Amino acid sequence: MNDREMGNGKIVNRVGRFGLVDTSVGTYAVAMSGHYHQQSLSSFFDLSGRSWDKDPQSVAGVMVVPWGPDDQMPRMIRDLLEKNNIGPGILQRKLGLIYGQGVQLYRHKVENNEVQQEWIQDPDVQAWLDTWDYQRYVREALLEYLHMGGHFTLYQSGKSVRIGKAWIHSLKCMPSADCRFVWPDPNRTPELEDITQILVGDMERWRQLQIFPRFDKWHPANHEAAVQYHALRSFGRNIYAISSFHGSIPWMQDANDIPEIVRALNDNVIAAAYIVHEPQAYWQEKRMQIEQDYPEWQDSEVEKKLNQLRDQVTTQIADVMAGKENAGKFFTCVDFVDEMGHEQSWKIEPIELNLDKYIEAQKAISKMADSATTSAMGLNPSLSNIIIDGKSDSGSQMLYALKIFYGADTVIPEQVVLEALNDALRINFPEKRDLYFGFYHKTIQKEDNVSAGDRMTNQQ
After folding, report:
1. Distant-in-sequence, close-in-space partners of 338: CB < 8 Å, separation ≥ 6
2. Residue 391 class from Cβ within 10 Å (0-12 exposed, 13-18 middle, 19+ buried)?
3. CA–CA distances in Å: residue 108 to residues 46, 105, 118, 435
4. Are 277 and 349 in contact (CB under 8 A)?
5. How does strand 150-157 pair with strand 168-174?
6. Nearest residue to 59 via CA among 196, 180, 223
């Protein structure tokens, strides 16, 4: 289907996905459209530096504290990571490293002037855990923390709360995208301590919205169901936390764009690499033939027919030259001499694109983006399974990085992620106040320190 548009004073013919621009000198430039479509986050990131949590926003008539520009921070992070080639993998690896062998009970003890963890089993506590899917809750809370810096937890109390006896029946991790703090006082900017209610539901479509009271661990019997926010506060932010990799969003966006750029080049590079010169005498001859075949036509009808022939010829040339599946094809034409004795011919002139330099530049950008993403997510490349320049780290380097990670980078995530579970433990079992939930990590030793029969190479 053809149509004609006015753009900057030039006539533009649209032939399928080709754009034919009628230039001032009477030639045609073929603009190929590819798959590349940039879904830019630049406006989102540029606005993220302002204090977007200082003004309330209405959600289905409820005034809430917005989370990011347009109140869509979780959704924007989701869309960004779904297109990223290394971010989700790094976060999954980090989740597995922190989670270790799962959640276990422990108590503190001091040995040789050092605080140690004594891992134990308690049948009463385990019986309570077995009544609900606590492992799924912990995994989801850890996932939310790694992506958004915190998690929302729904505390569901037992029936005994109706007679004033606190008992946490179970915990449920709520998606960050579905939770917002209700603005407490319209006359002033709230602090986190001021908030007493949390709106939960589909924030994109404003469906199934419900307001929950905020859970108070010092008065756990106040409500049968309540929600609490557990997070590591971000510097300069009063309410919501932001992800650790927030500053690397522009790099991640560039990395997301590179595959689309390469795909567009593969589709269109052959057509874009040439200029096709059309002999004016050829089209004059075509005009004369049309006028002879259709003497009753007006000039506008002749011009329309001529444009159709031009579109057909241009499309045929584009079909032959464009796309990787057409490599090796060729284009033929017949040269002729006009009535003045001048040679008239079609010419295809190559354009120097320096694509090798462009691809190398994209590779360099990709490498820098991967480095920035890995650093921002707080995981050593040795543990991220990222190969740089075709080289992977040795086993000793990975073991050293793992020890540093377990020694320095797991304590705070464990405290934040398991805070609700430990609060519930205190409420349900006040006599077991010396017990804590933690992530158990099996000690990994160098193969040289392991007996031959127990080495990993000998394990089935």
Report:
1. 281, 344
2. exposed
3. 46, 10, 6, 8
4. yes
5. antiparallel
6. 180
Strand pairing class (57-59; 28-32): unpaired
Residue indicated by tokens 């000793």: 396
Amino acid letter, residue 155: Y
Model pTM? 0.68
Q: Give Cβ neighbours of residue 232 (< 8 Å, ≥ 6 apart).
A: 149, 150, 241, 412, 416
- Alpha carbon of residue 71 to chain centroid: 17
Residue 414's region, left for phi above 0, alpha for psi from -120 to 50, else beta, is: alpha
| 182 within 8 A of 195, measured Cβ to Cβ | yes
Report the chain's C-alpha Rg in angstroms: 33
Between CA 382 and CA 403 the distance in angstroms is 12
Residue by residue, DSSP assigns 248-298 as: GHHHHHHHHHHHHHHHHHHHHHHHHTEEEEPPHHHHHHHHHHHHHH-TT--
pLDDT tens-place string over residues 115-131: 888 999 999 999 999 99
Q: Is the pLDDT of residue 46 over 60?
A: no
**pLDDT band at residue 339 using 50, 70 and 90 as cut-offs:** low
**Whole-number Å distance between alpha carbons of 401 and 97:** 12
| 8 A C-beta contact, residue 185 and residue 435 | no
82: left (phi over 0), alpha (psi -120 to 50) or beta: alpha
The CA-CA-CA angle for residues 283, 288, 290, to 5°, reads 95
> pLDDT tens digits, residue range 199-216?
999 888 888 899 999 999
**What is the H or E stretch that residue 58 is in?**
strand 57-59
Q: Please report, in angstroms and rounded to a whole number, the separation of the first and last CA atoms in the chain.
A: 64
Could you tell me the two tokens for 23?
């230039």
Q: How crowded is residue 444: how many other Cβ atoms within 10 Å of its Cβ?
A: 12
